[in-house]
Structures are given as C-alpha cells and as structure tokens.
C-alpha cells in the first residue's frame, strides 16, 4: 500500500506554521460539523437563555425594578448575553472531557499534527459558536423590543467585550475538562456555572442584594462585562458609586485578560501533564 | 533501515509508588504481528503509551522504526498508527467525516484525505455505513473504523491495544480479519491482549508481561510447549472409572495427568491435539468407560501465569506451593 504524501521530517518554521494553522482549521471545521449534525444542541444551548428571557422579562419582569430607573427588559438583555457567555465554558469543558475519555485526545497526540491545533482550533470554534449564540439571542431580544441606542461601533464593541469574556472562559473550560474524569462529571459543572452566571448584575442590580452577596456579584467578572455592555448599548445601567462599577469598561477588559493569563498556562500545563 | 520495528531497552515508568514498567525489554522484528500478553495492570498499556510517544519514560530507551521515542517524537508519530482500548473516533461525525478529518490532520491534503477515506472505507467494509453517525455503529464497526483511522498513513508500525476487549465473538472476528489483512500488506503490528487465544491466532511471536517486565517470549508454539500447550480433559460419569480413564489419558499425554477426584475429572497436556482426542475417545469407548464430557482446551491466561511466575494473574503475592485451582 502506498501513501504518496509522506512528508519530510525536517520541516522549516514556515511549514510548521502553515500546518499549525491548517490543523487548527480542521479542528474548527470539526466543531462546525458538530453544529450541523446536531442542530438540537444549539436549541439546548440557547433554550436556557431564551426561556430565562421570557421568564424574567414577562413573569418576574413587572415585579423587578431597575435602581435609577429605566425599562427592565432593556436592562435584562445585556445580562442575558453575559450569562450565556458565562455558561459557555461548559461547552468547552464538555468536548474536552469527551475527547479525553474516548481516547480521541490520545489519537490526536499520537499523530503528526501540530499539538497546538487541538487547543487553538477548539478556541476558534468556540468563539464561532458563541457568535452564533449572540446572533440568535440578539434577534430574539430585538423581537421582544430590545434596542441598542448606542452607535454601531459601541454596539459592536459591546458584543466584542462579551466575546472577550467567552474567550477567557475557554481556558477555564479546558482546565476543568482535563480535571474532571468523565462526561457525567462534566455535567455537574453546571453547579459551578449557575451561580457564576446568576450571582452577578445579569438579572438585577447588586445594590438590591444583601451586602455580602452584592459584593460577590459586584466583583464577579460577568458583572463587569454586563455593565460595560449596558453602557455601550445605551441600556439602563443601574450602577452604584463603587469603584468596580464606575470602571466597568476597564474591568471588562482586565478581568478576561487576568483570567487568560492565569488559566491559559494552567491549561497548557494540564495538557502537558497528560504525558506524565 | 533499522533491523527492528520496535526496540525497548530497560524502560522504567513509575506512577507515584507504583512501578508500571520495571526494566521492560522488547525486540520486535519488522513485518510481523507481535503479541504482548498479560493481565490487567501488567504494564501493557503503559508500554504502548510510551512507544507511541503519549507518555514520557522515566528510564531506559526505546526506538520505533529506528527513531528514539523521547527525542524524535514528531518523526515517530509520522510512522505509527494507534488503535487503543476505546474506539477513538468522533461519535457525532459520520464514518466518512471521521476518516477525512484524521486524514487532513495526517497532512495528506484535502483531496488525498478524501481519496484515502474512500480506500479505507472499502478496505474495512464500511462503505454502506459511511454516511451514518457513529452512534448507529455496532461495536465491531466502531473498532473497524478505529483501525481504519490508525491506518490512514500506512504506518510502519501499528499499535493495537486490546483491540477486541468488550466485543462479542462476531466483532472479534471482524477485527481479527482486518488485522490479518494488514499484516498481509507488510505492516508490523504490536498487539496487546489479555487473551492467549487472540495472541495465538494473530501473533507470530508472543511476549508475556508481568509486573512491568517481559518474563517470557518466543513463538506461540514454543511458549505453549513451555506452559504445557493444549490439554485434554475427560470427565467420567462414574468416579470409580477415574483411574482407568487416567491411564487412557496418560498414553497420549506429554506429562503426568492431573486428577480432580471431586469433579471426576482428569486432564493432561497433549502435543498432537486431534490425534490425542480421537485416540482417547476411541479407547474409552472400547473399554466401556462412560464419559460425561471430553474435550480439548487451551491453557487459560491464569494457567500461563501460574506456570511462568508461580502466581496467579490477579495476585500480588507469589502463590504458595499448595495447589491453586486454575
């Protein structure tokens, strides 16, 4: 049997770079094919935020007040976007566990592909998925009357900050995915994701919570991103005069950078520990 | 070109206190199926993971296709295929999509990867199911797809880590056929298994591994001779006939028959399997000894271990001299 594509062993930097990109793209395509083959997954993924929108917007909405005034639904939508991004790390963790548990990761590692491609391809694929999530959620929000009164650039910047948070959480997802033993255990990560998304300014202003809980919510990275996107969308913000609330735009960049700086090296190290 | 497809010298690998490999040596000539036989926890999988560059070794050295696994890992990966204990394929994708993806990751290029996928689907008899999701595949089909994925690059050395564990007899046969056809094309295969039968069926040479080191190796015949080979076993209906039956068995046996009085059973190793069986059956009939059961059986892995190591496969302590039921 002859395979004509055997490659020379001594590759230059250029060739390596080419394959690192090409291999990443192959992994991205794999992720996109998952979406195509399992459209119900998108429905699942978006079902929760959409149901939450309806629940909070219509069922609890009339009882909710926005400190400083403003329409609750306008206040709610950026929170919903932020929560969806916050929950996104579970998707990353799940596929990482899946690949590890089924031996797919080992197969990749025993192949001559670029080792970085598994992670970068995963990252790009997750961001594409998150963008799709935001498109669907944004259209839903528009349909029930939400509007961005910010300019085009501000609106795009707001979505950019949301994706930046999702990007940072990829690394937490990878670390958790490599830590938990199997897919069932990955499912229980929801117990982490739920408070992480909810104890924030996503649904209600932290100033309305008990002091200790409000403090946690204020310093939750999700809050900074949500508050910053509210400012950029020109939606009601409802912030108090604490430092963290006053610097939401700054912190919406700082938090994801800090998370990435901590968890990206951890993810790489966890990945390398597989060869112990 | 290197003489050996696989060469391992004194490999050591510790997991905490546990010594997974403890002076593991192996020499696999090119172009054959080499069986690595041992019970759970003997170190088979660790050996495969080191030889396929997945895990670093703590001591010793290993070459695959003439390349050092520690310092030339990338080059090694171009020359090996690995099919592990799981069917390591993406279950959400179809069979065809899986093979195309792995082909591209093997750097075949999009077009060649697609062609190669078709070749392999045909070779492994998966064309019909090619566009179905893996979730609909049977266990045997998954393993065949897994084997196909490990063969994308026409590897010099193929590692099969317990390729039939968890398969029903039909799935097992499917995988065995696939392995045989690979060997016919000149691939060197390192096959790990817990089944003596499987090693015997496929391997041209077998190494027995216990507690992280190879304790015996050779062609299956010599190994079987070493451990006594096949055994003839007779269960008599009337215990009174047991010694008479033992005498009949002794005539064809290559060693003193062993007698189990409570079970009314006598068994002994034989060299000429079929001749021995027909001879014993005829003589017993002629002598009018009623037989409950008669047959040939392979030594079990347990018996192999007992014979080679003095302890049972799942024991940590060496067996005492007292009789251990096999």
Topology at a glance:
The complex is a heterodimer of chains A (276) and B (326).
Chain A: H1 13-37, H2 39-60, H3 72-87, H4 89-101, H5 104-109, H6 117-143, H7 152-179, H8 183-187, H9 190-198, H10 211-219, H11 221-233, H12 243-246, H13 248-273
Helix pairs in contact in A: 1-2, 1-6, 2-3, 2-6, 3-6, 3-7, 3-9, 3-11, 4-7, 6-7, 7-11, 7-13, 11-13
Chain B: E1 4-15, E2 18-29, E3 33-37, H1 44-51, E4 59-64, E5 67-68, H2 73-77, E6 80-83, H3 95-105, H4 110-123, H5 139-150, E7 157-161, H6 169-184, E8 188-193, H7 196-202, E9 205-210, E10 213-218, H8 220-226, E11 231-236, H9 242-252, E12 258-260, E13 265-269, H10 273-286, E14 291-297, H11 301-309
Parallel strand pairs in B: 3-8, 3-9, 6-7, 7-8
Antiparallel strand pairs in B: 1-2, 1-4, 4-5, 9-10, 11-13, 11-14, 12-13
How would you describe this protein?
The complex is a heterodimer of chains A (276) and B (326). Chain A has 276 residues and is mainly α. Chain A contains 13 helices and no strands. In chain A, 74% of the residues lie in helices and 0% in strands. Chain A starts with 12 loop residues before the first helix and ends with a helix. In chain A, 44% of the residues are buried. Residues 1-7 of chain A have low confidence and may be disordered. Chain B has helices spanning 44-51, 73-77, 95-105, 110-123, 139-150, 169-184, 196-202, 220-226, 242-252, 273-286, 301-309; strands at 4-15, 18-29, 33-37, 59-64, 67-68, 80-83, 157-161, 188-193, 205-210, 213-218, 231-236, 258-260, 265-269, 291-297. In chain B, the strands form three sheets. A six-stranded mixed sheet of chain B has the order 6-7-8-3-9-10, with helices on both faces. A four-stranded antiparallel sheet of chain B has the order 2-1-4-5. In chain B, strands 12-13-11-14 form a four-stranded antiparallel sheet, covered by helices on one side. In chain B, a hairpin with a 2-residue loop joins strand 9 (205-210) and strand 10 (213-218). In chain B, helix 5 runs parallel beside helix 6 (169-184). The chains are: A mainly alpha (276), B alpha/beta (326). Chain A binds chain B through residues 1-7, 9, 19, 22-23, 26, 29-30, 33-34, 37-38, 101-104, 106-113, 117, 274-276, and chain B through 49, 52-56, 74-75, 77-78, 80, 82, 84-94, 97, 101-102, 104-109, 112, 116, 133, 149-150, 152-154, 185.
């Amino acid at each position: 049997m002859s395979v004509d594509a055997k490659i020379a062993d001594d590759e230059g930097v250029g060739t390596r770079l080419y394959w690192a990109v090409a291999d990443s793209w192959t992994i991205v395509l794999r992720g996109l094919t998952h979406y195509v083959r399992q459209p119900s997954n998108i429905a699942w993924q978006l079902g929760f935020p959409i149901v939450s929108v309806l629940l909070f917007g219509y069922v609890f909405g009339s009882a909710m007040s926005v400190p400083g005034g403003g329409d609750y639904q306008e206040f709610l939508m950026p929170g919903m976007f932020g929560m969806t991004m916050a929950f996104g790390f579970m998707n990353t963790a799940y596929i990482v566990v899946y690949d590890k548990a089924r031996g797919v990761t080992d197969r990749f590692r025993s192949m001559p592909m670029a080792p970085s491609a598994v992670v970068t391809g995963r990252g790009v694929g997750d961001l594409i998925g998150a963008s799709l999530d935001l498109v669907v959620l944004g259209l839903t929000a528009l349909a029930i009357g939400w509007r961005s009164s910010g300019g085009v650039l501000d609106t795009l910047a707001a979505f950019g900050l949301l994706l930046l948070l999702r990007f940072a959480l990829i690394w937490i997802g990878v670390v958790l995915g490599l830590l938990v033993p199997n897919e069932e255990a990955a499912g229980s990560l929801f117990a982490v994701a739920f408070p992480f998304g909810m104890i924030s300014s996503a649904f209600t202003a932290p100033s309305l919570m008990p002091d200790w809980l409000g403090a946690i919510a204020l310093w939750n990275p999700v809050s900074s991103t949500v508050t910053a996107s509210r400012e950029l969308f020109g939606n009601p913000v409802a912030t108090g005069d604490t430092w963290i609330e006053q610097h939401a735009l700054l912190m919406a960049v700082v938090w994801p950078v800090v998370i990435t700086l901590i968890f990206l090296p951890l993810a790489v190290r966890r990945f390398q520990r597989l060869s112990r | 070109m290197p003489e050996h497809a696989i060469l391992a010298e004194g490999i050591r690998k510790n997991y905490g206190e546990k010594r997974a490999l403890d002076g593991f040596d192996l020499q696999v000539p090119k172009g054959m199926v080499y069986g690595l036989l041992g019970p759970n926890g003997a170190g088979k999988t660790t050996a495969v993971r080191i030889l396929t560059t997945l895990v670093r070794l703590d001591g010793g050295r290993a070459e695959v296709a003439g390349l050092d696994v520690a310092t030339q890992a990338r080059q090694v990966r171009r020359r090996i295929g690995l099919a592990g204990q799981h069917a390591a394929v993406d279950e959400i994708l179809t069979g065809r999509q899986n093979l195309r993806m792995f082909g591209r990751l093997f750097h075949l290029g999009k077009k060649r990867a697609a062609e190669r996928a078709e070749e392999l689907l045909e070779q492994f008899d998966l064309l019909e199911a090619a566009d179905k999701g893996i979730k609909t595949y049977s266990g045997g089909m998954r393993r065949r797809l897994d084997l196909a994925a490990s063969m994308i690059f026409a590897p010099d050395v193929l590692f099969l880590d317990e390729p039939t564990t968890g398969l029903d007899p039909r799935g097992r046969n499917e995988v065995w056929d696939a392995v045989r056809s690979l060997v016919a094309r000149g691939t060197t295969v390192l096959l790990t298994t817990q089944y003596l039968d499987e090693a015997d069926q496929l391997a041209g040479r077998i190494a027995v591994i216990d507690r992280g080191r190879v304790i015996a190796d050779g062609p299956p015949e010599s190994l079987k001779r070493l451990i006594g080979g096949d055994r003839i076993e007779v269960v008599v209906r009337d215990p009174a006939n047991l010694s008479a039956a033992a005498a009949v068995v002794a005539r064809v046996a290559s060693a003193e028959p062993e007698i189990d009085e409570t079970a009314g059973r006598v068994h002994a190793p034989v060299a000429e399997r079929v001749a021995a069986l027909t001879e014993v059956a005829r003589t017993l009939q002629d002598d009018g000894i009623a037989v409950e059961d008669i047959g040939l059986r392979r030594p079990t892995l347990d018996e192999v271990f007992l014979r080679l190591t003095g302890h049972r496969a799942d024991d940590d302590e060496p067996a005492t001299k007292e009789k251990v039921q096999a």
